[in-house]
Design brief:
single chain, mainly alpha, 2 helices
Length: 68
């Protein structure tokens, strides 16, 4: 059971990024306009979430509390 939460978060972020990219491509196809600020904000947020999750994992490993 250990580590399932972080794996679920990672999987969810990957799926949401794929869906977001597909939606942006669809919007671009229909309008010929890219929502650049939205793309930067979205991928910045998801990258930040994964970065924070990785830093939590790193601190647990350093303290000898490996979740795996």
């Amino acid at each position: 059971m250990k580590g399932k939460f972080s794996k679920a978060i990672i999987s969810t972020v990957i799926i949401l990024n794929i869906l977001f990219a597909a939606a942006v491509l669809y919007v671009f196809l229909k309008t010929s306009a890219e929502p650049a600020a939205l793309v930067v904000a979205w991928f910045g947020w998801t990258t930040g979430e994964l970065w924070m999750l990785a830093s939590i994992k790193k601190k647990k490993v350093e303290r000898g509390k490996d979740c795996e």
